[in-house]
Structures are given as structure tokens and as C-alpha cells.
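Figure-free illustration: sequence to structure, shown twice.
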Amino acid sequence: MDKKTILAFVLSLAVLILWSILFAPKPAQKTEPQTKEEPGKAQPAQPASPQPAPSVQKMERPADPTAPKAEEKEVTVETPLYKAVFSSTGASIKSFKLKKYHLTAAPDSPLVELVHGQTPLVAIHFDPGAKKDTTPVVYHVDENSLTLEAGTSPKELTLRATTPDGLLLQQTFRIDPDHYAIEHGFTVSNPLDKPVEGILKVQIANLPPKESTSYYSFIGASLLLNNKYEETASTDLKDEKSLSGLIAWISYQEDYFMTAFVPEAESQANFLGRTLGSGVLEQTWSAPLQPIPPGNQFSTRSTLYMGPRDLEILKAIGRKLDLAIDFGWTDIIAKPLLYLLKFFNQYMGNYGIAIILLTILIKILFWPLTHKSYKSMKEMQKIQPLMAKIREKYKDNREMMNKEMMSLYKTYKVNPMGGCLPMVIQIPVFFALFRILGNSIELRHAPFMLWINDLSAPDRLFHLPFTIPLMTPPSGIPVLTLLMGASMFIQQKMTPTPGDPTQAKIMLLMPVIFTFMFINFPSGLVLYWLVNNVLSIGQQYRIIKRAA
């Protein structure tokens, strides 16, 4: 392996890392099978084929024109999973705190709040179209609060209103204490003596944070349009974005969490995404309704999801909502690795140990290949004197030198690229874990041991009161990263020394280069590379001992 090859490899690795961070493409669309429902998971919804808008039916209850005007009221809904505040103004959601997730890894840290700013997170309303008044309807609600214990039956929060035109509106939220998903029902009743037309609108609005809590995250709007996943970052929605077609769902994503609206049936609808003057990112899903004849009503159902971007939960809801979790070009590797990590964690109760077990499993799978590579490196050491003679003899004829070198490799049956193989085969796994640690809620704030209390964050022992160049705050001693660099140095010392002095210096610098590269990477990724190095050292030692 000549020095140009080594330099090309190091530069390629650095470019791949930057490319993966900045320009990772979306995975090809795929259809995932439904999973079995588990406690704490969303209630599955069967995928529906494209259907027309819900049909109108005879009214079940007459209009009450004498009903008193409702006043704004807030209803607190609390389950083991979240604490939400519903407002009677527009039957909207003003607050949604997730009880199982904190802002930081500290146990006394505030809970994650999905609503930022004063704009309601979700609002669903009927728009008569011709009217200019956009004031939200104030609903009447009997409950002041709802509290549900784990394992108990779902409860319904019902809000009713009469519009200025005399239409009756009813919204029902079915709260399940064991699921994040909320089943929503909306009914528009027409007690008038003429048909009524209108548009059903769903708005998801939020104020994107100025800084992300994840080193590899997406903040913005997404939807499944015409069976194709679309997403637009909040920074790219300064101008309005309008789309139309078969929409299966829309969502707002922010780091490890999301808010989604999933209609009962995929149907023709319109999507409008924009950033308001206040900085709020607003998404609107709208669909025209069939005319509602006098004495009839229109009813529709949907699912609202506010919670973690958990692959299994989203898959259980159905309608390909799990496509919202994107691992880029590593998707085909990342998702199986994530399932393996979750499997190991299920039995070990520690994602750090799960990463170690995963590393051992990968090492076992590639053991024959790396064993052959290390033996090839040993053979390369034996022919170093012959290579030096060829370099000296043909130092003024590069073409002839390369030809003689290839003939030498063929004679002694060695592969000059064999030394790179152990590192090259780790690259796909490396990038897949890189994406998993930045995108997967399972590893957010996942502790390992001692000072490592968050595998998705950089390794820091002690928090220093000053900044260190090239180190992302908080500054501290990257013990695990330094150990990883030391393991690479030991591995290099065990590797046959190249005959070219320049090449030898480059190889010696690689542990230093990698240490600086990894200093701001998630500690879970550093742990993987460290364990892999230790296993490789053991494998090389075994080969050297047998050859002695």
C-alpha cells in the first residue's frame, strides 16, 4: 500500500463523514410490515387504499340555536406518557409535555415540551370558505381535567360548538393511557334549510428552536405525498410551499420528536407550508368536503400523534409513518443494526453493553476476512527488501516500477490493499451507527457507565470552565476518545512497518488524526471503534504468536 493510497483513503473517509453529515440523501421508499402492538406503543391502524371524502349522513342530534355562547376553557389531560393542555378555542392543543423524556441527561431536568411559543400545536377546524372571519370557534366542554392511569380504559374528551351560521360542530379526542396516539373524530351537522359546503383544515404549527439538541437532526415539515416521502427543513420554508395529491399524513419533526396528523383514509388533499412573521412554522392540510344537505352531517376520523420518533411506534400506527425516520444512504444497514441494539439492550439493560456485543458480533462475522488480511500484511513485511530494491532500480521510471511491483505481488500472492481491508469493512457500520446515534430516540440520553451518561453525546470527563480549540462545548477530558487513539497506536505498532519512510510516518499519524476526528463524535461511536480496535489487537497478537 503506497503513500498515495493511504492519503487517498484518509481523505476519502473524512469526505464521507462530511458528506454524510451535510448531504445525506433520503432512503428509497419502502413498505414496512405491521408490528405487533406492545404496551406504550401506538394503536395500529390498517393502511387504507385511496378513498373519496367521507360520506354525509342523517343528523343524529338536532341543532340547538338557544345554546349559550361558550367561553374559553382549558382542559388538562394527564396519562403516564404525557401531560397535555387542550383549549376550547379551536379545540386546539396548547401544551404537550412528554413525561418519559427530559431536556438533558440530568434526571431533574425539565420535561420535553413539544409546544414552543403561543401558537397551538394542533388545530382542526371547518372552514365554510366564503366567510372572511377566521376567528377560531370557541367550543363548550364539560370536563376540567382528565387523568388516566396505566392499563385503564380509554376516555373521551368531547367539545361541541355552534357556529355563527348555526352549524353544529363536535370534536372528540379518544385518550388511551398506554399510547401516544390520540384518535380524533370530527362531525359537522347541518340543521339549516340549505346545503352547506366547506373545507376541512388541519394545522400543525410550532416555533422551531434556534439550536438543535442532536448533532444529526432534522427540524421541519414532512409528509407522504403520492406514496413518496417529502420533507422540507424549517430554514427552507421562508417562502410558501404548496403541494397537492394523495396525502397519507403530514408531520412536524424536531430532533428526536414529532407531531403528526394521519387521516383515516388517504385522499386528495392540499398541503401548504410556510413560516409566519413570528417565526412559527405552519403546515396546513386541507380537503374540500362533499355538500352537506339539510338535516345531514359529515363525519371523519383521524389519528393525532405527538411523541418520540420511535421506529416501532410509528410502524404500529401504519400508513408508512415510520418513513419519517431517515437514516440516509445507510438505511439498509442502520435499521437492522438498530433492531440488534434494541435486542441486546432488552436483555442487558444497557445500550453501552449492547454496542459492545454488537461490535463482537460484527467482528466474528468478519473474522475470516480480517484474518486473511492480517496474514497478507505479514507477508508484505517479508517482501519489503525486494520492494526497496525495485524502488531503487526504477526510481526514474514510475511505470516500470509499478509493473515490477505488481509482478512481485503476484509472485508472492500478497494484496497491497490488504492492510486497508480491516478498516474499510468497518466504514458502512461506522456511518450507520453515526446516523443511529444522532437520529434514534432509543439512544438519546442512554447511559453506559461511570462518567458516560449519554451515548449520543461526546465523551467528556469533567466539565472545564474554559473552551478548548476544536472541541464542541462543554469542554472536558475525552477519556474514551484518548483510549481509542491509544488502541489505534498499539495496533499500528503491531502492523508491519512500511519500507517507505514517508509512508511509515503517515501510518504513525493516523491514530492522531482519528483521535481529533472522534473528539466530537458520540461516545457510543467511540466505544464501538475502541472495542473493535481491542478485538483487532487480540486477533493480530494471535496471528503473530502462531507465526513465531
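We now fold a second protein in the same way, so the two outputs can be compared directly.
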Amino acid sequence: MASQIRTCFVTAPAGSELKVLIDALHRRGLKVVEPRLPSSEGDLEHETAEALRAADLVIGVLTRERRSEWILFELGQAWALGKRILLFAPPTSIYLPTTLRRFMTVRTSVSNVEAVNFALDQLLASPEPVKVSEGKTRQKRHLAEGSRNYLRYSLEAVGTADPRELEMLVAETLRQSGVDVLSESRPGDERADLAVWSDELQPFVGNPILVEIKSNLQTREAASRAGKQLASYVAAAGGLWGLLLYTKGPDELKSLPPNVLALPIERLFERLKEETFDDVVRDLRNRRVHGVGL
């Protein structure tokens, strides 16, 4: 499905180096809209609001060197207008105000060419997420009958699917289970198989969480290589965590990088009968952080 994003508004501290980001937007055919310079009697706030209304996507940039309350104001306006928002924040620890944690956030510098390109490609390839009304608590999800049937089919098909079929099977199963936004890599891409964006997972594992799918991990050495490969994808994309899914492998995968979670595909599908993907990942992450298995 072609992206509906055609225009973009970028809000960043004065003096920020945005060439990599702006060039990446232009290469993808996105027009960067800016506020018109106000006349002597003009109103910059009004012109900014008009530019935000004209944008399909709003990108916020946070840096360590410069702080700007104006950025928070503009992002708040964009949220009120129902705009799709992508936030770039420094890769190392920085406090994000509570009001910003609702946005899809990529932890990377906007001078990181590969990470910026990856984030934009994933966002443009993804369907627009379904918005949940503010103030409403998310209730426990109940799968529709069609999704339950697909989940049963998926469990039966795991053992016979070839590697490409397995990737497609996992991707469609996650969609059926209700993930917010999911995009798949193209054959030949040196990237993880899937990227999943989730508002609920943002405070725990950031966005996106990258998913690598392996049909068979015969040895712990093979599992270790797969984990290191996924960790390199996560680092290149400016992410925080990755999830390694596999059909067969050692009972325990102990030699994985600290930011790589792992789970057999069949076990994931079984858990999706009663839990959301967000619940499963949050549980795996908490167990990993507290030293309880993977």
C-alpha cells in the first residue's frame, strides 16, 4: 500500500544540523513545509499552526546540546491536530517528558544516515496506526473468530514453512493479533525481517523493536551468531531491543546480547491466544532485565 504521507514539518532546536534528515525526506519525495515569515504585524504562532495543518507527518528532533520549549509546544499542537509524529532523541540516556512518551521515538542522532533512512523507510511502509482515545484504558483484547482461526492455522504451519514463508506467516499472525504498526524487509535487505512499532511498548523497549526470524538454530553457536547479527541491526537502526524468533533451537539460549530477547515461534503463537504481542514482549523484557530467563 502506497504511503499517504506527502508533506512533513520538522521541529528542532535552532542551529541543529538537519541536512541528513532533510535530504532523506527529499529523496523519498516528501515536501518539507515551513511557516511563512510573518509580516511586521504577522503572528509566527499562527503561521506555525498553518504549517502544521498542512503537514501529513511531523518530525521532532531532541538534542543534548540545545533544549527548546518551543519544540514541545509544536509537538503538542501536532498531537492535538491528530498528526502522525516521529521523534528523534539522543541514543544515550536522556529524560523524555511524559507528554513525549506517547510518540514513536527513535533513539539516534539525525546525522546517522543509516538509522534515519531506516526509520523513514519503516514509517512510510507502514499503515497508519489505529488511534486509541485518550483517557480510555486499553481493555484486554479478544481475538475475532477469523483471527483465532488464522492463529490455529499458523501453529500447524510453523513446522513445514520454508524460511520466506515463515517470515510471512509470523508477519501476518502479528497483524491478526493486533500490533499497532508492522513493516517487513524486502528480499536482499541487510536488515531485520520485521520492525514493530507500538505505543504501549515505547516506554519499555522503544520503537521500533526489530524481529529476526530463524527456521532452525541447531546449536548454541548458531543462536549466538543470530543474536549478534540482530544486535547489529538494532544498533544500525538506532533502536534499543530486538526479538529473535525461531522454530527449533537449544532449550536455553544463554549467549545472546543483553538487548536481544528470544522465543520459539510456536510458544509466541500459543501465548497470543490469550495475550497481546505487547504483553509478551514486556514480560520477556522484564524477565531479561531482572535476570529471570530470557
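Summary for the second example: Residues 220-236 form the longest helix (17 residues).
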